[in-house]
Fold this protein.
Amino acid sequence: MNSIRVRLGVLGLALLTGFTTPTAASAAQAAPSPTVEEQRLGRAAPQEILRRSGFDTAAPRLTRALEGARSYGEARRAVTREGARLWRRAVDRAQGRGPAEYEGREALPWKGGGGRRAGLSRDDDRPLYWARLAMTRAVRTWEPEFGLTEGQRAALLDELERTSRGQDAIRYPHGKGMKRILLTGFDPFTLDRDIRISNPSGATALALDGTVIETADGPARVETAVFPVRWQDFTDGTVERALRPHLPKVDLFTTVSQGRVGRFDIERTNGAWRGGFGDNDTVGRTGTVPVSGPDSQPQWTTTTLPYAAITAAQTGRFPVYDNTSVTEIPAGGTEPVVRPDGPTPGSTARAGGGGDYLSNEIAYRATLLRDRLGLHGTLPGGHVHTPVLQFAAGNTTEVTDPEFVRNRLDIIAQVRTILRVAAEAS
């Protein structure tokens, strides 16, 4: 820190006396401040989640690697390595590999009953989320001696996002005889409403990544990735970049997100509209979903998942609905109208079956990509909304409880069964 102050003093003196002092960092930009999302890290619940899972070691490890980097290339390699390590660690933990609890950390008093707090259950998606934010904050605020341009820092952050979300780790075995399923989940969201929140779609992605489901027609390999709850990432094309290489090669795909209380929904129709609800950076966006080729952009896309077979099957304790409702502005009209049976010809979208937030948008983008690749008639794909993951009644402070864990495990198991039914029906 003393050397930084000295350099700043020399620079100030040079400016005052009219001289310039070229340095290796002259092209560098000042490090930006942490985002709104990253600033939540200091609160008690995220810190407890990181501590009790052992994932509080991830960001310090990356920080040490960055401090040892002597060039942008070395920094990028460190970010790639540590991002991929975080994703693999989270998947391994969710699937029973590696330590389940905090590693050598002091147990905390359990406010909800007798005993001591140990580690969080393996099915928890939140350690990955909060550890990633700690790592992106480290990259965002890092000021190396050799300097970083704004573009270089953005590239490091993009690399960390992709690798720590499994987006570049989708691998299927070569050869025939095994179906290929692609599933996506989301980060936790509405964190200012409840900082403790978990997202069962993200937990499902961790639990199922790389697993094999036995179907009546043979084995099916599941590969997964997780996406942020941020409008800008979607505007920048993160969904299309991640999914485009794989959709032509898979046998089935589904985007998954948290939806309504006490039920699953197979969303029949997706709309090309953003409703403006604030994302994880408290940013809202309202307007038509921005995609490439807007002149040929449809107002609606539809699922090709076998919804009739899925809703008819016994997949778990939560009911599963074929949701056909949308909100539209009818052709020639000016006001939104709810249509229980889907859109009418020539209408303008205001909400798909899955609403007008990012769950609808990922479904819209993925199914539009399917259609633009010419796969509408051959590739089953669409969106599944899970039940809202709820804490036990009366738990307003603890980061977990037995009912919370049971609900998440049941949702994960039911998504897995839905995939099996869909693969068999397809």
Q: What stands out?
A: The CA atoms of residues 94 and 131 lie 15 Å apart. Residues 1-27, 102-116 have pLDDT under 50 and may be disordered. The first helix runs from residue 2 to 17. DSSP finds 13 helices and 16 strands in the chain.
